[in-house]
Amino acid sequence: MATRHVRLLLGIAWLLLILGDPSAVRAAVFPVYDRVVSHADSPTTDTWYLYPFFSDRQTTSTRTIAFHPLWDWHVDHETGSREFDFLFPLYTWRHHPVKGQMRDYRRSYLFPLYFHRSYERNGTPHFARILIPLWFAGNQGNTGTYRILF
């Protein structure tokens, strides 16, 4: 009997996805599907599937897709920035074309063993790599490259 109800809810959610009005302020078959559109600061659409596990948030310039608590992906179309997390804070990856005075800023880490960061400032590449507790390497502009093996 419960399987029949689940199938019915999934069927209704599927119909809402296909036939639903994209301008609707709210559409829901909670907890299978929930969609809210708000226009407070900028048009924002929050969509949840199988609440609270899968979410999709869109604004005019950004999109965040997540399967909680396993991973999330964030894209900013205006700046070109991208971010990815897997079992946060276990693995994190970031890329920002411009971040303050830095260009092509990239950062990733696998907690607690590995860390990497690279960017360019005033035409000079900078980077740091750490593999705990064995290896440390980096370049801080005009001071040259250094490597340390523990």
Number of strands: 13
Rounded mean pLDDT is: 82
Strand order of the largest sheet: 1-2-3-4-5-6-7-8-9-10-11-12-13
User: What would you call the shape?
Assistant: elongated
Structural class: mainly beta
Strand content: over 45%
CA-based gyration radius:
22 Å
Distance between the termini: 63 Å
Largest sheet: 13 strands, antiparallel
- Spell the H/E element sequence: HEEEEEEEEEEEEE
Proportion of helical residues = 10-25%
Enumerate how many helices there are, as a single number: 1
Poorly predicted runs: none
What does this molecule look like?
Strand 2 (33-38) and strand 3 (44-49) form a beta hairpin. The chain has a 13-stranded antiparallel sheet, covered by helices on one side. The longest helix is centred in the first third of the chain and has 18 residues, at 2-19. It has 1 helix and 13 strands. It is 12% helix and 56% strand.
Keywords:
150 residues, mainly beta, 13-stranded antiparallel beta sheet, 13 strands, 12% helix
